[in-house]
Amino acid sequence: MSRVLRYGLLFAVALSGVLLFILASASGNTTFFERNYPVLLAINGVIAAALALLVLLLVRRLMKRLWLQRFGARLTSRFAVAFALMGVLPGVLIYIVSTQFLSRSIESWFDVRVDRALDSGLTLGRAALDNVKDDVAAKARAWALELAELPDGAHLAHLNTLREQAGISEALLLSGSGQLIGATGAQVWELVPETPAPGELRQARTQRIFAVIEGEAGATDLRQGLRARVIVPIPPRTTMGSTSPLSLDFSAAGRGREGADTRALGSVGVSPNAETRYLQLTQAVPASIAANADALQNGYRDYQELSLSRSGLKTIYGLTLTLTLLLAAFAAIAGSVLLASSMTAPLLQLAEGTRAVAEGDFSPVREFPGNDEMNVLTRSFNAMTRQLTDARDTVQIKQRELEHAKAYLERVLGNLSAGVIVLNHGFHVVTANEGASRILGRDLNLDIGRPLHALDAPLAEAIVTAFAERALAGMTEDSWQQQIELKRTSTDGSAPLMLLARGSRLPLDDGDGYVIVFDDLTQVISAQRAVAWGEVARRLAHEIKNPLTPIQLAAERLQMKLVDKLPGGDADLLRRGTSTIVNQVAAMKRMVDDFRDYARVPPARLLPLDLNALIEEVGTLYRTAGAPVTLALAPGLPLIEGDATQLRQVIHNLIGNAQEALAGHPDAANPPRITVRTALAEIVEGDAKVRAVRFTVEDNGPGFAANILRRAFEPYVTSKPGGTGLGLAMVRKIVDEHGGRVEIVNRGAAGGAVVTIVLRRLAPAGSTAIAAAAPQRAA
Amino acid sequence: MKSATAATALRAACLTLLLAWLGCVAPPARADERIGVIAAAIEPAQGGGGMLNATFEFEMPQALEDAVAKGIAIYFNIEFEAYRKRWYWLDAKVSSSTLTYRLSYSPLTRQYRLARGGLSQPFDSLDEALGLLKSVRQWKVIEPGQLSPRDEYEAQVRMRLDVTQLPKPFQVNAITSREWSLASDWREIPVPPAVTR
User: Fold this and answer.
1) Which B-chain residues 103-142 have CB contacts (< 8 A) with chain A?
2) Cβ neighbours, 10 Å, residue A467
């Protein structure tokens, strides 16, 4: 739109410039322009109208913008008005001065005095001409009278004489009907004299004279030039003379007489009833008078022309001036509007850019070529937005790094086995990690903002007390470490939770806070307990076993010696008593052996071993006893390093445990089943791929109670009446010796328990399995 | 004086706008029919060709008469055009001729003068001069053999004041004032078959 307008304006201005030039030239006097003047005028008018239309369009557009309160419209309009005024006002001033000047100067050309002088000149000229005419008329009258005295035949000769004497240019003798009778004059021989018109003769007859000044002042010859012509009738002769035909000797008549000549035309006979003849005298106006008259007439005509056309002239000049003004003014206005638009365009852009920046869009605005302040400003703006972009990017990068760091920290905290809780000064939970949730057995993320007392009153109590004691003791160090035992009151009757907690003050955003780090010591303690039990067992076994054999021997000896000496009833009593003692001692011995076995598991002798073969060997023993044992062994397992004897006991213990668990719970709908599986497990640790052998024993029995499950691998923990609780403890001990891991979980909804053992110590490739030792228990 | 200037300027401006409007909107208006064609006919000339006899009638507008009386020469054009009729296309112009009369007045001799080509004739009064101007006699418009007997022809004639021959200021007057526009419409004249011989 704007571009079209701009080019349209340029075109119109250029065209109007050319046309105005032509129009101004046309105000001079060129025939071409004279002919095409109206066309020029019209074209200029059209262009003026087109420009006016353009201006209207532009102004309307500007007004619309103003009305819409478009940004920059006010500035643009102000610029436009200023420019337009600067362009138009001088133009109008010049226009007014010019038109006034024009009008005055044109009017000043026309003056009453000049008018009158010209009229007087004209009258003077006419008078001079009339003078000539009157002179000729007087001569004509006199000559007519003279001729009247002469016979017709002598007329021409006498006339010739008279003419020559008077110096009249030409004399004609005419019949009453206007026919030429004779002619005499300087040029008679060159041109046939013109006979007067009938009207002229009639006038001569009625008024006795016809006199006229005719011809064109510019011409020089007699026929065309300015001349006086007089026709008078020749009165009839009073005495009739001879009627002999007049014959004129052309040749003698005066060829020699200085160019003057006389001739008679036609055969002219003078009739008796002679009608009136006419004499016509033609006298060329003297050359000086004729020239002056010509000049006068031309001047008069020009003056009159100008005088008559002065309104037209004024209109022409006025039109040219007005057109010029209109074209200039419209061009100025249109140009000013466009110029103002182009000047404010960078401003508008900047405004747009500012808005965009406010909305967060830092894309640069268009830069204009050129070095003026506006463009410099635009460039500065772009530089600013670039810097803003950079700053924002930096901030974003920093923020992302921070987030990464925080996420990393959280990941570390989350994967920390220790629990971390941050409390504010009112002991409300601010943060807690996954470990804390796991140890405390509830999702602390849901309890953010709640007081710790509401979550775990004993823990809160202990923590508050610990901090209070620190404060009371006036210790400079605010951190403390202490073991906290939490009694669990939950229904599953789980064991008390032993925590090793460390607390310290932590300045938070809203005042003092506390950070508590605690570990679940339950496992550690149970391990310690196991070690302690091992020691106790070893000592007990040693101490108890020593007297057992003497007791047994003493009892057997008593029986042997006394049974025969006693009467029947007493002998039976004795036999029962000794047998009880022997049995109990044996049981005690066995128990002590178990303890000793537990305490003194010999170091494993690790040799390449085929686990599958070992399981099959043990499994055959259970084929027929109790619940069926299903073997699901993965083929091609790598050899492991293991002690066949110890591992055999592990398998025995696990299958036996399962059998015992199933034995007490016959279930028709769910026939007891024991499944033993082996599988090759591969896990990725860091760069290396670690291979391991997994060995599981699962049953579909009732599973473990929750309190047992926690401490299933501790010695003397058993759910079975009469069990020593050393079976699983032994399993664990052996697996630990093999560098493996053992886990026990309940199968959940399906019921039953799964014991999983992972053995990671694989035999080097290429080694061969040592034949399994004979199935015998280690001593 | 000032008001006169302003009035002139205003008039000029108005005129410009009017011109612009005319140029934009109105088709070029034909001159008013101020000259009437009373009679017009083509008669066969001796030896072939055709002669035009026509009689026009008009009143000299006062402004024009004044201008003539001040010694300014004015020109009248009598234009003749002949067309060959074509049923399949626009008619073809076969002949066109213009007769120019110059009417002038000499204030010194107080004579009117009507010139046609090289010939000029003085008149004592304007009416006499106009009398001759208004009737055209024996104007040879069609040359012998110019027209073919096989075709049909049509001719037209008109008379108008030749504004372009006026001095330029008068041309402006002629644009703006009705008094200065003097012209007849085209008058259709049948072309007698005898002319085509």
Assistant:
1) 106-111, 113, 122
2) 20
List chain A residues with CB under 8 Å of B176: 315
User: Would you state the structure tokens that stand for residue A561, as one six-digit string?
Assistant: 């010696």
pLDDT for res A398: 95
> In this predicted model, which residue has the larger pLDDT, A244 or A179?
A179
Q: Which two tokens stand for residue A272?
A: 């008796």
Do residues A644 and A734 lie in contact, with contact meaning Cβ atoms separated by under 8 Å? no
Q: Show residues of chain B in contact with A122, CB under 8 Å.
A: 107-108
Give the distance from residue A86's alpha carbon to the nearest chain B alpha carbon, in angstroms. Answer: 21
* pLDDT tens, residue by residue, A297-355: 888 888 888 787 777 777 777 777 887 888 888 888 888 888 888 777 777 778 888 88
pLDDT of A395 over the 90 cut: yes
Q: What is the domain partition of chain A in residue ranges?
A: 2-109+303-355, 135-239+250-285, 416-520, 525-599, 607-759
- Nearest CA-CA distance, residue A63 and chain B, Å: 24
The CATH code of domain A135-239+250-285 reads 3.30.450
CATH code: domain A607-759 is 3.30.565.10
The fold of A416-520 is Beta-Lactamase (3.30.450)
pLDDT digit string, tens, across residues A180-214:
888 888 776 676 777 888 888 888 888 888 888 88
Structure token digits, residue A317: 């000049």
Q: What is the DSSP letter of B179?
A: G
- Partners of A215 on chain B (C-beta within 8 Å) are 109
A477-491 pLDDT, tens per residue? 678 888 888 876 544
Taking the model in full, what pTM does it have? 0.48
Instruction: Tell me how far CA of residue A450 lies from CA of A413, A488, A510, in angstroms.
Output: 21, 21, 16
Comparing A158 with A315, the larger pLDDT belongs to A158
The DSSP letter of residue A721 is: T
Q: A135-239+250-285 with A416-520: one CATH topology?
A: yes
